[in-house]
Amino acid sequence: MKNIAKVLISVSVVATMVFATACVGDLKYDDPYSKYNLDDYVELGKYEGIEVTKPEVKVTKEEVKAEIDARVADKTTEEHKKSGTAESGDKVNISYVGKKDGKAFEGGSTGKGGTDIVLGASGYIAGFDDGVIGMKVGETKDLDLTFPEDYHEKSLAGQPVVFTVTLNYISVPKTVKYDMDFIKSVSKAKSKKEYEAEVKKELEKKKEATAKNAMYGTLWNAIMDNAKIKKYPQEQVERAQKEEEEQLKQYAAQYNMSLDDLIKNMMQMDKTQYKKYAEEEAKRMVAQEMVFSKILQNEKIKLTNSEYKTRLKELKEEQGIDDEEFKKASGGKTFEESVDKNKLIRAFLIDKVCEDALSKAKVK
Q: Do 335 and 234 share a structural domain?
């Protein structure tokens, strides 16, 4: 199953693109634009009969082979060798305690299960990997090392330390062959030819979806270019800013960063630049929401209970979400509860607007 936080954020980002009044059978949600006369804020341009080119959808033998190779590689497991000597390039599991002046320093020790590193590519301070190379499984050894002068933790920069390291085991990949045993473990196909045809069909389906999304993007860009935004409801701009900031906080949390660190280090902005960016991004979002809302009103696009269930099932299949696994990983919450049903409805309405525009487009 895909990383839950990423799934929730991606759905949330899509869903916040549109807030519109729609009759969805028994499903209803609040429309923040219901109190506005959208004619005062937005004027739609041409959104029917837009020219769009469909990308070519073709799957080659090489792509099928590459996909199968990747699936076989995914089945590779690891065997933990409890004997032997560590060599450069080996993936090993080690436990260690780092001490400065005889006392363990913060962040310098592993937990109970140790940690995995690849010798020669661990990224640890100079001499660490070389000290582990040549150790035997089960051996414990002291490494007398020195942190670099420019080390980010000032209290350790240029300081001599001792790492007491234990080599727990050496990981050896246990490869899988592309044979009928592999095919039986992942498919109901009766032969390699049948399985390869199955994989080709799956790749074609993915490429079709990618092509459709590309056309949706082209259509939507044209729709926005053709629309005229007269003014922005300030209340909605402020709401969009708060939502954007919350999404950035969630993104930062995935990397154990604060929002300020993300803005400075990843977005490379100061506070003034970020404030301007946040307002512009909020206005862009509100503009899209108003255009979507106006199209929904004009075209009377609706979402039924049946459509909702079908699209929800397709979304979960696409994201590789298993209901029981999701509950376990999210503290007992269902996917709908975690994402927010209203946001799912909005996301599905976005799809319907794009589908409607594509059905009326001039596809070349």
A: yes
For residues 10 and 134, give the distance between their C-alpha atoms in angstroms, rounded to a whole number.
Answer: 46
| Predicted TM-score (pTM) of this structure | 0.67
Q: Which residues of the chain have pLDDT under 70?
A: 1-31
**Cα torsion through 242, 244, 249, 253, rounded to 10:** 150
Q: Which of 174, 199, 214 is the endpoint of a domain? A: 174
Same domain, 357 and 272: yes
Question: Quick one: pLDDT at residue 112?
Answer: 82
What does the pLDDT read at residue 29?
Answer: 52
Q: Is 155 helix (H, G, I), strand (E, B) or coil?
A: coil
Q: What is the tally of structural domains in the chain? A: 2
Whether residues 273 and 150 share a domain: the answer is: no
Query: Is 261 part of any domain?
Result: yes
Statement to judge: residues 39 and 105 lie in one domain: no
Task: Examine residue 152 and state whether it is found in any structural domain, yes or no.
Answer: yes
Read off the pLDDT of residues 123-178 as tens digits, 9 standing for 90 and up.
999 999 999 999 999 999 999 999 999 998 999 999 999 999 999 999 999 999 99
Q: Tell me which long-range contacts 186-194 makes (C-beta under 8 A, separation of at least 24).
A: 186/71, 186/75
DSSP designation for 262? I
| Alpha carbons 163 and 134: distance in angstroms, whole number | 16
